[in-house]
Amino acid sequence: MFGGAALLALVAGGAFWAVSQKAPAKAHESKDGKDAAEAVLQFSPGEVARAQMRVLPRVVELSGPLVAPNTAVVRAKASGTLVTLNVVEGSRVRKGEALGTLDLADLNARLAERQAMAESARAQLAQADRAHQSNLHLAEQQFISPVALETSKAALGSAKAQLNAAQAQVDTVRVALREAALMAPIGGIVAKRQALPGEKVSAEQPVVTLVDLTKLELAATVGTQEVGHLRPGLPVQVMVEGDAKPVAGRIARIAPAVEAGSRAIGVTVELANPNERLRAGQFAMARVNLPETPPSLTVPSTAVGSASGQDYVWTLEQGKLLRRSITTGRRDATNGVTEVLQGIAADTLVLAASFDNLREGRAASVGDKPAAAGAASAPASAAVASR
Protein backbone atom coordinates (compact mmCIF):
# COMPACT_ATOMS: atom_id res chain seq x y z
CA MET A 1 0.00 0.00 0.00
CA PHE A 2 2.74 2.31 0.91
CA GLY A 3 4.57 1.44 -2.30
CA GLY A 4 1.51 2.37 -4.40
CA ALA A 5 1.22 5.77 -2.74
CA ALA A 6 4.88 6.51 -3.37
CA LEU A 7 4.46 5.59 -7.01
CA LEU A 8 1.48 7.94 -7.38
CA ALA A 9 3.41 10.82 -5.80
CA LEU A 10 6.34 10.26 -8.13
CA VAL A 11 4.09 10.32 -11.19
CA ALA A 12 2.36 13.55 -10.05
CA GLY A 13 5.70 15.30 -9.45
CA GLY A 14 6.93 14.40 -12.91
CA ALA A 15 3.77 15.77 -14.49
CA PHE A 16 4.15 19.06 -12.59
CA TRP A 17 7.80 19.40 -13.72
CA ALA A 18 6.82 18.84 -17.35
CA VAL A 19 4.08 21.47 -17.20
CA SER A 20 6.40 23.99 -15.52
CA GLN A 21 9.04 23.52 -18.23
CA LYS A 22 6.52 24.01 -21.06
CA ALA A 23 4.91 27.17 -19.64
CA PRO A 24 7.90 29.53 -20.19
CA ALA A 25 8.26 28.26 -23.71
CA LYS A 26 4.66 29.21 -24.48
CA ALA A 27 5.15 32.59 -22.87
CA HIS A 28 8.31 33.15 -24.93
CA GLU A 29 6.45 32.16 -28.07
CA SER A 30 3.67 34.62 -27.21
CA LYS A 31 6.20 37.46 -26.66
CA ASP A 32 7.91 36.74 -30.00
CA GLY A 33 4.54 36.84 -31.70
CA LYS A 34 3.78 40.25 -30.17
CA ASP A 35 7.13 41.66 -31.33
CA ALA A 36 6.50 40.32 -34.78
CA ALA A 37 3.11 42.03 -34.84
CA GLU A 38 4.65 45.39 -33.77
CA ALA A 39 7.62 45.14 -36.09
CA VAL A 40 5.88 46.48 -39.24
CA LEU A 41 4.31 49.92 -38.94
CA GLN A 42 1.71 50.79 -41.51
CA PHE A 43 1.05 54.43 -42.42
CA SER A 44 -1.84 55.74 -44.47
CA PRO A 45 -1.12 57.64 -47.72
CA GLY A 46 -2.16 60.89 -46.04
CA GLU A 47 0.55 60.47 -43.41
CA VAL A 48 3.44 60.39 -45.88
CA ALA A 49 4.67 62.71 -48.62
CA ARG A 50 7.48 62.86 -51.13
CA ALA A 51 10.16 65.52 -51.25
CA GLN A 52 9.35 67.59 -54.31
CA MET A 53 10.97 70.29 -56.38
CA ARG A 54 8.90 73.47 -56.48
CA VAL A 55 9.33 77.19 -57.00
CA LEU A 56 9.16 78.99 -53.70
CA PRO A 57 8.04 82.62 -53.59
CA ARG A 58 10.93 84.77 -52.47
CA VAL A 59 9.36 86.95 -49.83
CA VAL A 60 11.15 88.82 -47.07
CA GLU A 61 8.89 89.91 -44.23
CA LEU A 62 9.63 92.90 -42.04
CA SER A 63 7.83 94.12 -38.96
CA GLY A 64 8.16 96.98 -36.54
CA PRO A 65 6.62 100.28 -35.43
CA LEU A 66 5.95 103.28 -37.61
CA VAL A 67 8.02 106.33 -36.73
CA ALA A 68 7.84 109.94 -37.88
CA PRO A 69 11.30 110.99 -39.07
CA ASN A 70 10.32 114.68 -39.11
CA THR A 71 9.91 115.14 -35.38
CA ALA A 72 11.00 118.28 -33.57
CA VAL A 73 11.23 119.02 -29.86
CA VAL A 74 10.81 122.71 -29.06
CA ARG A 75 13.00 123.58 -26.08
CA ALA A 76 13.26 126.68 -23.95
CA LYS A 77 16.50 128.46 -24.84
CA ALA A 78 16.49 130.49 -21.64
CA SER A 79 15.20 130.03 -18.13
CA GLY A 80 12.02 131.82 -17.22
CA THR A 81 8.31 131.46 -16.55
CA LEU A 82 6.11 130.05 -19.28
CA VAL A 83 3.53 132.80 -19.58
CA THR A 84 1.36 131.41 -22.39
CA LEU A 85 1.17 128.24 -24.48
CA ASN A 86 -1.12 128.60 -27.48
CA VAL A 87 -1.33 124.92 -28.54
CA VAL A 88 -2.59 121.61 -27.17
CA GLU A 89 -2.11 117.98 -28.24
CA GLY A 90 -3.45 117.55 -31.75
CA SER A 91 -3.18 121.20 -32.73
CA ARG A 92 -1.91 121.81 -36.25
CA VAL A 93 0.81 124.44 -36.58
CA ARG A 94 2.71 126.06 -39.42
CA LYS A 95 6.44 126.52 -39.66
CA GLY A 96 7.46 129.74 -37.88
CA GLU A 97 4.21 130.03 -35.90
CA ALA A 98 4.45 131.32 -32.34
CA LEU A 99 3.65 128.56 -29.86
CA GLY A 100 3.82 130.55 -26.62
CA THR A 101 5.74 133.18 -24.69
CA LEU A 102 8.25 133.15 -21.87
CA ASP A 103 8.83 135.79 -19.22
CA LEU A 104 12.33 136.89 -20.26
CA ALA A 105 12.93 139.56 -17.64
CA ASP A 106 16.42 138.19 -16.94
CA LEU A 107 17.42 138.33 -20.58
CA ASN A 108 16.00 141.82 -21.01
CA ALA A 109 17.94 143.04 -17.97
CA ARG A 110 21.10 141.41 -19.31
CA LEU A 111 20.56 143.12 -22.66
CA ALA A 112 20.25 146.52 -20.99
CA GLU A 113 23.44 145.86 -19.04
CA ARG A 114 25.38 144.85 -22.17
CA GLN A 115 24.11 147.89 -24.06
CA ALA A 116 25.29 150.18 -21.23
CA MET A 117 28.71 148.52 -21.30
CA ALA A 118 28.86 149.06 -25.06
CA GLU A 119 28.06 152.77 -24.64
CA SER A 120 30.80 153.09 -22.02
CA ALA A 121 33.27 151.41 -24.36
CA ARG A 122 32.22 153.76 -27.18
CA ALA A 123 32.86 156.78 -24.94
CA GLN A 124 36.26 155.46 -23.95
CA LEU A 125 37.09 154.97 -27.60
CA ALA A 126 36.16 158.54 -28.38
CA GLN A 127 38.37 159.78 -25.54
CA ALA A 128 41.28 157.60 -26.68
CA ASP A 129 40.89 158.87 -30.26
CA ARG A 130 40.99 162.54 -29.18
CA ALA A 131 44.06 161.91 -27.04
CA HIS A 132 45.83 160.19 -29.91
CA GLN A 133 45.03 162.97 -32.38
CA SER A 134 46.43 165.54 -29.92
CA ASN A 135 49.58 163.51 -29.48
CA LEU A 136 50.05 163.39 -33.23
CA HIS A 137 50.18 167.19 -33.39
CA LEU A 138 52.52 167.31 -30.41
CA ALA A 139 54.78 164.75 -31.98
CA GLU A 140 55.00 166.76 -35.19
CA GLN A 141 56.21 169.73 -33.10
CA GLN A 142 58.52 167.37 -31.20
CA PHE A 143 56.90 168.20 -27.87
CA ILE A 144 56.52 164.50 -26.97
CA SER A 145 58.72 161.51 -27.52
CA PRO A 146 57.95 158.75 -30.06
CA VAL A 147 57.39 156.34 -27.17
CA ALA A 148 54.56 158.49 -25.83
CA LEU A 149 52.98 158.56 -29.31
CA GLU A 150 53.11 154.77 -29.55
CA THR A 151 51.53 154.50 -26.12
CA SER A 152 48.58 156.66 -27.15
CA LYS A 153 48.22 154.61 -30.34
CA ALA A 154 48.08 151.39 -28.33
CA ALA A 155 45.45 152.88 -26.00
CA LEU A 156 43.34 153.75 -29.05
CA GLY A 157 43.57 150.18 -30.34
CA SER A 158 42.64 148.79 -26.95
CA ALA A 159 39.56 151.04 -26.77
CA LYS A 160 38.44 149.86 -30.20
CA ALA A 161 38.79 146.23 -29.14
CA GLN A 162 36.81 146.83 -25.95
CA LEU A 163 34.00 148.42 -27.97
CA ASN A 164 33.90 145.46 -30.36
CA ALA A 165 33.75 143.02 -27.45
CA ALA A 166 30.94 144.95 -25.78
CA GLN A 167 28.99 145.07 -29.04
CA ALA A 168 29.45 141.32 -29.51
CA GLN A 169 27.99 140.71 -26.06
CA VAL A 170 24.98 142.84 -26.99
CA ASP A 171 24.48 140.80 -30.17
CA THR A 172 24.74 137.55 -28.18
CA VAL A 173 21.99 138.56 -25.81
CA ARG A 174 19.81 139.70 -28.72
CA VAL A 175 20.25 136.27 -30.39
CA ALA A 176 19.33 134.60 -27.11
CA LEU A 177 16.17 136.71 -26.93
CA ARG A 178 15.26 135.85 -30.49
CA GLU A 179 15.83 132.13 -29.98
CA ALA A 180 14.00 132.20 -26.67
CA ALA A 181 10.77 132.82 -28.54
CA LEU A 182 8.78 129.58 -28.79
CA MET A 183 8.45 129.20 -32.58
CA ALA A 184 7.49 126.09 -34.54
CA PRO A 185 10.58 124.86 -36.45
CA ILE A 186 8.46 122.62 -38.72
CA GLY A 187 4.85 122.39 -39.78
CA GLY A 188 2.91 119.53 -38.30
CA ILE A 189 0.83 118.39 -35.34
CA VAL A 190 1.47 118.88 -31.65
CA ALA A 191 2.19 115.42 -30.28
CA LYS A 192 2.89 116.31 -26.65
CA ARG A 193 3.17 119.26 -24.28
CA GLN A 194 5.95 118.88 -21.71
CA ALA A 195 5.18 122.13 -19.84
CA LEU A 196 2.12 124.17 -18.87
CA PRO A 197 1.58 127.91 -18.54
CA GLY A 198 2.79 129.26 -15.21
CA GLU A 199 5.60 126.73 -14.83
CA LYS A 200 9.19 127.78 -14.38
CA VAL A 201 11.27 126.29 -17.18
CA SER A 202 15.03 126.02 -17.42
CA ALA A 203 17.27 126.36 -20.44
CA GLU A 204 17.02 123.39 -22.87
CA GLN A 205 13.92 122.03 -21.13
CA PRO A 206 11.44 120.45 -23.62
CA VAL A 207 8.21 122.38 -23.97
CA VAL A 208 6.39 120.98 -27.02
CA THR A 209 6.95 118.02 -29.40
CA LEU A 210 5.86 118.42 -33.03
CA VAL A 211 5.51 115.65 -35.63
CA ASP A 212 5.03 115.74 -39.38
CA LEU A 213 2.88 112.73 -40.35
CA THR A 214 2.98 113.25 -44.12
CA LYS A 215 5.94 110.87 -44.32
CA LEU A 216 6.41 107.85 -42.06
CA GLU A 217 9.04 105.15 -41.76
CA LEU A 218 8.89 101.51 -40.71
CA ALA A 219 11.84 100.67 -38.48
CA ALA A 220 12.46 96.93 -38.86
CA THR A 221 15.25 94.35 -38.70
CA VAL A 222 16.10 91.33 -40.85
CA GLY A 223 18.47 88.42 -40.44
CA THR A 224 21.88 88.31 -42.02
CA GLN A 225 20.70 85.54 -44.39
CA GLU A 226 18.00 87.74 -45.92
CA VAL A 227 19.62 91.16 -46.03
CA GLY A 228 21.68 90.21 -49.07
CA HIS A 229 18.49 90.05 -51.17
CA LEU A 230 17.45 93.60 -50.25
CA ARG A 231 18.57 96.93 -51.62
CA PRO A 232 17.38 100.54 -51.29
CA GLY A 233 14.57 101.38 -53.65
CA LEU A 234 12.81 97.98 -53.67
CA PRO A 235 8.99 98.30 -53.50
CA VAL A 236 7.29 97.09 -50.34
CA GLN A 237 3.69 96.32 -49.40
CA VAL A 238 2.95 97.44 -45.84
CA MET A 239 0.02 96.27 -43.71
CA VAL A 240 -0.65 98.51 -40.72
CA GLU A 241 -2.61 97.32 -37.71
CA GLY A 242 -6.15 98.61 -37.73
CA ASP A 243 -6.09 99.23 -41.50
CA ALA A 244 -7.17 96.55 -43.97
CA LYS A 245 -5.79 98.39 -47.01
CA PRO A 246 -2.10 97.81 -47.82
CA VAL A 247 0.14 100.83 -48.24
CA ALA A 248 2.87 101.04 -50.86
CA GLY A 249 6.35 101.90 -49.68
CA ARG A 250 9.98 101.43 -50.58
CA ILE A 251 13.19 100.52 -48.80
CA ALA A 252 14.89 103.79 -47.93
CA ARG A 253 18.13 102.57 -46.34
CA ILE A 254 19.84 99.53 -44.84
CA ALA A 255 22.09 99.71 -41.79
CA PRO A 256 25.79 99.16 -42.56
CA ALA A 257 26.48 96.95 -39.54
CA VAL A 258 24.93 94.08 -37.59
CA GLU A 259 23.40 94.78 -34.19
CA ALA A 260 25.61 93.11 -31.61
CA GLY A 261 22.88 91.70 -29.39
CA SER A 262 20.38 90.32 -31.91
CA ARG A 263 22.69 89.69 -34.89
CA ALA A 264 20.10 91.47 -37.04
CA ILE A 265 20.44 94.36 -39.47
CA GLY A 266 18.20 97.41 -39.42
CA VAL A 267 16.09 98.17 -42.49
CA THR A 268 14.07 101.37 -42.92
CA VAL A 269 10.99 101.41 -45.14
CA GLU A 270 9.65 104.78 -46.24
CA LEU A 271 5.95 105.27 -46.98
CA ALA A 272 3.95 108.35 -47.91
CA ASN A 273 1.04 109.39 -45.71
CA PRO A 274 -0.39 112.48 -47.41
CA ASN A 275 -3.83 112.19 -45.77
CA GLU A 276 -2.25 111.52 -42.35
CA ARG A 277 -4.41 108.41 -42.05
CA LEU A 278 -1.62 106.50 -40.32
CA ARG A 279 -0.11 107.44 -36.99
CA ALA A 280 3.37 107.15 -35.54
CA GLY A 281 3.72 104.22 -33.17
CA GLN A 282 1.36 101.86 -35.03
CA PHE A 283 2.72 98.35 -35.61
CA ALA A 284 3.14 97.34 -39.24
CA MET A 285 4.25 94.34 -41.28
CA ALA A 286 5.86 94.63 -44.71
CA ARG A 287 6.43 92.12 -47.49
CA VAL A 288 9.18 92.44 -50.06
CA ASN A 289 8.49 90.26 -53.12
CA LEU A 290 11.75 89.26 -54.76
CA PRO A 291 12.31 87.76 -58.23
CA GLU A 292 11.65 84.01 -58.49
CA THR A 293 14.49 81.51 -58.19
CA PRO A 294 14.95 78.03 -59.72
CA PRO A 295 12.88 75.20 -58.13
CA SER A 296 13.98 74.07 -54.69
CA LEU A 297 13.62 70.76 -52.86
CA THR A 298 10.77 71.00 -50.34
CA VAL A 299 9.00 68.85 -47.76
CA PRO A 300 5.86 69.57 -45.71
CA SER A 301 6.68 71.81 -42.77
CA THR A 302 4.90 69.33 -40.48
CA ALA A 303 7.47 66.69 -41.46
CA VAL A 304 10.38 68.68 -40.04
CA GLY A 305 11.33 68.03 -36.44
CA SER A 306 14.08 69.54 -34.36
CA ALA A 307 16.25 68.23 -31.53
CA SER A 308 19.25 69.96 -29.97
CA GLY A 309 19.17 72.60 -32.68
CA GLN A 310 19.31 70.08 -35.55
CA ASP A 311 16.40 69.73 -37.99
CA TYR A 312 15.48 66.24 -39.21
CA VAL A 313 12.81 64.20 -41.02
CA TRP A 314 11.72 60.55 -40.81
CA THR A 315 12.04 58.77 -44.16
CA LEU A 316 10.80 55.39 -45.45
CA GLU A 317 13.61 53.76 -47.38
CA GLN A 318 13.59 50.10 -48.45
CA GLY A 319 10.79 49.33 -46.03
CA LYS A 320 12.51 50.82 -42.98
CA LEU A 321 12.27 54.03 -40.96
CA LEU A 322 15.35 56.24 -41.05
CA ARG A 323 15.95 59.56 -39.31
CA ARG A 324 17.75 61.96 -41.63
CA SER A 325 19.35 65.19 -40.45
CA ILE A 326 18.64 68.04 -42.85
CA THR A 327 19.58 71.65 -43.41
CA THR A 328 16.53 73.82 -43.93
CA GLY A 329 16.17 77.09 -45.80
CA ARG A 330 13.14 79.21 -46.57
CA ARG A 331 9.70 78.44 -45.21
CA ASP A 332 6.54 79.06 -47.22
CA ALA A 333 3.78 79.49 -44.66
CA THR A 334 1.13 79.89 -47.36
CA ASN A 335 1.73 76.44 -48.87
CA GLY A 336 3.01 74.85 -45.66
CA VAL A 337 6.36 73.67 -47.07
CA THR A 338 9.99 74.07 -46.04
CA GLU A 339 13.02 74.21 -48.29
CA VAL A 340 15.62 71.46 -47.77
CA LEU A 341 19.14 72.52 -48.66
CA GLN A 342 20.93 69.33 -47.67
CA GLY A 343 20.20 65.88 -46.22
CA ILE A 344 17.75 64.10 -48.56
CA ALA A 345 17.21 63.69 -52.28
CA ALA A 346 14.19 64.48 -54.44
CA ASP A 347 11.29 61.97 -54.38
CA THR A 348 12.32 60.69 -50.93
CA LEU A 349 9.30 59.40 -48.98
CA VAL A 350 8.98 61.20 -45.63
CA LEU A 351 6.50 61.07 -42.77
CA ALA A 352 4.33 64.15 -43.15
CA ALA A 353 3.20 64.25 -39.51
CA SER A 354 4.64 63.80 -36.03
CA PHE A 355 4.57 60.36 -34.41
CA ASP A 356 5.57 58.97 -31.04
CA ASN A 357 7.65 55.88 -30.28
CA LEU A 358 9.48 55.71 -33.61
CA ARG A 359 12.73 53.78 -33.80
CA GLU A 360 15.29 54.04 -36.54
CA GLY A 361 15.52 50.87 -38.59
CA ARG A 362 12.04 49.63 -37.75
CA ALA A 363 10.10 48.07 -40.62
CA ALA A 364 7.34 50.25 -42.04
CA SER A 365 5.09 50.42 -45.06
CA VAL A 366 2.37 52.56 -46.60
CA GLY A 367 -1.15 51.19 -46.90
CA ASP A 368 -4.78 52.06 -46.47
CA LYS A 369 -4.78 51.31 -42.73
CA PRO A 370 -3.93 53.91 -40.12
CA ALA A 371 -0.61 53.84 -38.30
CA ALA A 372 -0.06 51.13 -35.70
CA ALA A 373 -1.10 51.76 -32.14
CA GLY A 374 2.52 51.88 -31.04
CA ALA A 375 3.10 54.86 -33.35
CA ALA A 376 -0.11 56.80 -32.86
CA SER A 377 -0.17 60.41 -34.01
CA ALA A 378 0.87 62.91 -31.39
CA PRO A 379 1.38 66.65 -31.18
CA ALA A 380 4.62 67.84 -32.69
CA SER A 381 5.90 69.10 -29.34
CA ALA A 382 5.30 65.71 -27.73
CA ALA A 383 6.96 63.94 -30.65
CA VAL A 384 10.06 66.08 -30.36
CA ALA A 385 10.23 65.49 -26.63
CA SER A 386 9.94 61.72 -27.02
CA ARG A 387 12.63 61.56 -29.67
Give an overview in words.
The chain is α+β, with helices and mostly antiparallel strands and 387 residues long. The protein folds into three domains: 41-57 and 294-386, conserved putative lor/sdh protein from methanococcus maripaludis s2 fold (Beta Barrel); 61-69 and 212-289, Efflux pump adaptor protein, beta barrel domain (Elongation Factor Tu (Ef-tu), domain 3), CATH 2.40.30.170; 104-178, Helix hairpin bin (Helix Hairpins, Orthogonal Bundle). 30% of the residues lie in helices and 34% in strands. The chain contains four helices and 25 strands. The protein has helices spanning 2-39, 105-140, 146-180, 380-386, and strands at residues 41-43, 48-50, 52-54, 59-67, 71-75, 80-85, 92-93, 98-103, 182-183, 188-193, 200-201, 206-211, 215-223, 235-240, 247-254, 264-272, 283-289, 296-300, 305-307, 310-317, 320-325, 327-332, 337-342, 349-351, 364-366. The strands form seven sheets. A six-stranded antiparallel beta barrel has the order 4-13-16-15-14-17. Strands 3-18-23-22 form a four-stranded antiparallel sheet, with no helix packed on it. A four-stranded antiparallel sheet has the order 5-12-10-7, with no helix packed on it. Helix 2 packs antiparallel against helix 3. The protein is elongated, with a radius of gyration of 45 Å.
